[in-house]
Amino acid sequence: MDKIEHSFLNVNGVSLHVAHTGNGEKGTVLFLHGFPEIWYSWRHQMLAFAAAGFKCIAPDSRGYGLSDQPPEPESTTWDDLVADLAAILDLLSIPKVFVVGKDFGVWPAYGLALRHPHRVLAVVTLGVPFIAGPLHIETLPEGFYIHRWREPDRAEADFGRFDVRRVIRTIYILFSRSEIPIAEPGQEIMDLADSSTPLPPWFTEEDLNAYAALYQKSLFRFPLHIPYRSLHKSSVGENPKVEVPALLIMGEEDYVFKFPGMEEYIRGGRLKQFVPELEEVVYVPEGCHFVQEQFPERINDIILTFLENQVKKLNE
């Protein structure tokens, strides 16, 4: 990790932490994390992509990790996250980027492509496709983790029983499974794994310590607001069309596939109605929701092949 440098940028009234590396002879890649991720979730990709000739930048979203909390966290919108990204590019004098988004990072990734199409060369997303409307999750049981985390004060009380390290540990265990995390009546989400449950084999105690150290500053107030308590407020306008080349990577064992209608939406081709330049959907056997950490070399090869092809087209 010594090759990854760190800076703080004053962006739209908050100080944002940005990890960066690489010289950028082939262009710049902007990495956007999900939850409970942080810039660190892109560590494998940043080093490999920098070695391949790309400049890599990975911010901690406002309210996450080493970035500042916004003055009024619950007033922050998805548009604010997109505005942060545009401002980061301005401050770093980067005119155009390739964007790679994971989990809720998919929303600002595609938001940047929709609102600033002249600045986005291509979009790669992992774990979640472009979604034009609300998630159809109303049919899932009351114990579904998003239902629980939307409920005022419920997650705060649940998480508050444990230290930050234990919360991150439990969420990584639950979200790496193929089943949607759903608690039974009278049970909380944090009770779905205990201290004896092993970490995924690709996620080390050192990794866990790194995540926990980063979340010691931010804690979970903002991460509960975005994404979970703001999913119904995400807006991409009517009949959105993402007019840039795109790639979607899904682990075959990703629990998101079991959201109502999700697999049909992806495999059935409806996604291309909104992302007409979607070049490919890559399904990774045995891949979970954290596929870029689980199989870093495989994912690096997939994304770098796509990016190299885009660079070649731009230079023709």
How would you portray this structure in words?
The chain has helices at residues 43-51, 78-91, 106-115, 145-150, 154-159, 164-175, 205-218, 221-228, 262-267, 271-274, 291-294, 296-315; strands spanning 5-11, 14-21, 28-32, 55-59, 97-102, 120-126, 246-251, 278-284. With 316 residues, the chain is of the alpha/beta class. An 8-stranded mixed beta sheet has the order 1-2-4-3-5-6-7-8, sandwiched between helices. α1 links the parallel β3 (28-32) and β4.
Question: What is the topology?
Answer:
Layout: E1 5-11, E2 14-21, E3 28-32, H1 43-51, E4 55-59, H2 78-91, E5 97-102, H3 106-115, E6 120-126, H4 145-150, H5 154-159, H6 164-175, H7 205-218, H8 221-228, E7 246-251, H9 262-267, H10 271-274, E8 278-284, H11 291-294, H12 296-315
Parallel strand pairs: 3-4, 3-5, 5-6, 6-7, 7-8
Antiparallel strand pairs: 1-2, 2-4
Radius of gyration: 18 Å
Q: What is the H/E string?
A: EEEHEHEHEHHHHHEHHEHH
Q: How many helices does DSSP assign?
A: 12
Q: Strand arrangement, largest sheet?
A: 1-2-4-3-5-6-7-8
Taking the alpha carbons of the first and last residues, their distance comes to: 35 Å
Low-confidence stretches: none
- Main sheet properties: 8 strands, mixed
**Overall geometry:** globular
Mean pLDDT: 94
Our estimate of the beta-strand percent is 15-25%
Structural class: alpha/beta
The share of residues in helices is 25-40%
Number of strands: 8
List the defining traits of the structure above.
12 helices; alpha/beta; 316 residues
